[in-house]
Design a protein that fits this description.
- The protein starts with 8 loop residues before the first helix and ends with a helix.
- The chain has six helices and eleven strands.
- It is globular.
- The strands form three sheets. The protein has a seven-stranded mixed sheet with strand order 2-1-3-4-11-10-9.
- The N terminus is likely disordered.
- The longest helix has 12 residues.
- By secondary structure, the protein is an alpha/beta fold.
- About 40% of the residues are buried.
């Protein structure tokens, strides 16, 4: 029996592009271990990392609200993401961090954009100037109306610590977050700024198709800082929202 007698043309087109089973209802939270694979600092921003710069406590937080952890260690395709509910890209590598940095390429950006449109939830956790790759990360972020500025905020002669209080959404009645040396954001109209400081966007949420994109220019909830101020509470609220339990 010919396929086009069973399925409408739009379904055939989706199948050809790999979207036929695009977004599952799983609670899988995948961490990008391909573009962030710091060979010069193993365990940095990894689920297995128990040191100050690791994500072991972040992983426990996600599991506590129903998420299932995995790591992607290959170029991103629609097939790679088909069973993923939330995909986290954190601090893409620079040559100073990895002997073989992998950049976010155009086919990957196309695949991630289609995955978000079909209902995927994307977390972009950047870093400040000198500590992350900006060009390719911004090529992705700009698909959703967000751009990471290649600078460090707040501007100070010492350690750039930002303690800021939000309201509504993931901040509830007014939780406070603690961030260090943040890359501030530029956002297009239609993108919701969840947190700003003196008019500078710090956290943003974009909707595209059926999906969402959350961005902040800081790895934010690594082990060293996850329990500073209300970071843990705000991150829990964020993942309850992204996983559909809030």
């Amino acid at each position: 029996m010919r396929l086009n007698k069973i399925l409408p043309r739009t379904a055939i087109a989706c199948a050809a592009f790999g979207l036929f089973a695009a977004i599952s209802h799983s609670q899988t939270v995948a961490l990008d271990g391909f573009h962030n694979n710091e060979t010069k600092m193993p365990g940095h921003y990894a689920w297995s990392g128990t040191q100050a710069g690791g994500f072991s406590e972040f992983g426990k937080l996600i599991e506590s609200v129903g998420g299932k952890l995995t790591t992607v260690r290959q170029p991103v395709t629609v097939s790679v993401l088909k069973d993923v509910r939330v995909f986290i890209i954190v601090d893409p590598d620079t040559p100073a961090e990895s002997t073989d940095p992998k950049y976010i390429e155009r086919p990957e950006i196309d695949a991630i954009e289609h995955w978000v449109e079909e209902g995927g939830k994307l977390l972009l956790l950047g870093n400040d100037k000198g500590n992350a790759e900006f060009q390719h990360l911004n090529n992705l972020a700009e698909r959703f109306g967000i751009r990471f500025r290649e600078e460090t905020y707040p501007v100070t002669s010492g350690k750039a610590i930002l303690i800021a209080k939000g309201s509504g959404s993931i901040f509830g009645d007014g939780s406070t977050v603690y961030l260090v040396e943040v890359a501030p954001l530029d956002v297009r109209p239609g993108v919701k700024v969840l947190l700003s400081d003196h008019g500078t966007p710090i956290m943003a949420l974009a909707n595209k198709g059926k999906g969402q994109v959350f961005a902040v220019g800081d790895p934010w909830v690594y082990n060293e800082y996850i329990d500073r101020e209300d970071n843990r509470r705000v991150a829990s609220n964020l993942f309850r929202m992204l996983l559909g339990s809030q």
